[in-house]
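Table S2 (text version). Query chain:
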Amino acid sequence: MQRHSARHSRTKAWAFLSIATLCTALACSNLLDVKAPDAINTSSLEVPASAQLLVFSSIGDFDCAYGAYVVASGLMSDELIETTLTAARWSYDRRDIDPNEALYSTDGCDTSISGGIGTYTPISIARFTADHALGLLEGWSDEQVPNRQTLIATSAAYAGYSRILLGEGFCTAAIAGGPALTSQQIFQAAAAKFDTAVTAAQAAGADSTLNLALVGRARAKLDAGDNAGAIADASLVPSGFVYHATYDAGTGRRSNRVYTENNAGNTVSVSFEYDSLSDPRVRVTDAGTTASDRHTELWLQGKYIDGSASIPIASYTEAQLILAEATGGSAAIGILNGLRSSISLAALPSSSDPAVIKADIASERARWLFLQGTHLYDVRRLSLPLIPAAGVSYSRVYHKGGNYGSETCMPIPAVETNNNPNARG
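Corresponding structure-token output:
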């Protein structure tokens, strides 16, 4: 098992992170344009001696954004149900996000500051800081920066994963003040970042980072429809590999957002579709009470045991699921059964029926990758049925207002198109 850890440099990293949170990729052409009183002069951090700090800071940005995205995408794809009386939070769950809403566009991922479940801005910050660290590292030499190739690989991999979240979660998105890009274009940009990560990781002999990049590139290629490329990368990932985003219950920014919202806060519940599966991959418990709205039965996830639990970013399991889907046919069932046998689950019946194979792949992905931020794009690209269906009164327990919508991706926010002329139209 592999896990990244940046905790030993967290104290030094807060100075950079406090500046990062003041600026988003929407409003600033450069993160370092921000002039914060009583803050460290940012130029003192842009030196080779701070290379590791810069990379760890970008990882911290990603981990925070990732936790919020897992919850938001889980609400949109019916892994989770919104259970608060706060109308501003309902649109994820109701699938009718308005581009002018602040919750998904400009809110952050730090529960101790906003309490919101921001996605576009936190992901954009993570993308920017990873890109920025990568650019600096590429301008320095191996003599100036110990382990430079490993740091390049890490920054490039996180830059790629930030783009994957933008491409999978948003209908279109802009990067660095550029035009609104389609998901296909964003996946291609992600794959290019993973190319850089793979090359640098191979040069450094950094196996963990190499496998992180291989899974990411396989995912980006599968998303983009390049099955052959996805197969080539997924086939290289070794059994047992897992790479995590790490969390710490001690702070709102660093806490596991799924546990915080569901188990600790009771503001979301596991969806009814998962509460009776009796599947070891989807551990769900009836809390025997109602959630914060005092109406919805509260079901608790058991995948993340506390606020410090890590969330997988990439794994051998995901690589095998990608391999199964990209390979297709009866061979896909064999790959799925290989995973199932690893935890003593009965084999799926063999089949050559494309509809059966597609259904099996979708079901296995939903269970293996439960609450890991992948299901929303599965709903979109595999054309899975919306649950509840569009037009049904919102919500399923009592009428909150309006009807379920048909969104399977978040719109590019108005704050982006209003402030970025290149993204209009």
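Notes on Table S2: Residues 51-76 form the longest helix (26 residues). Confidence is low (pLDDT under 50) at residues 5-34.
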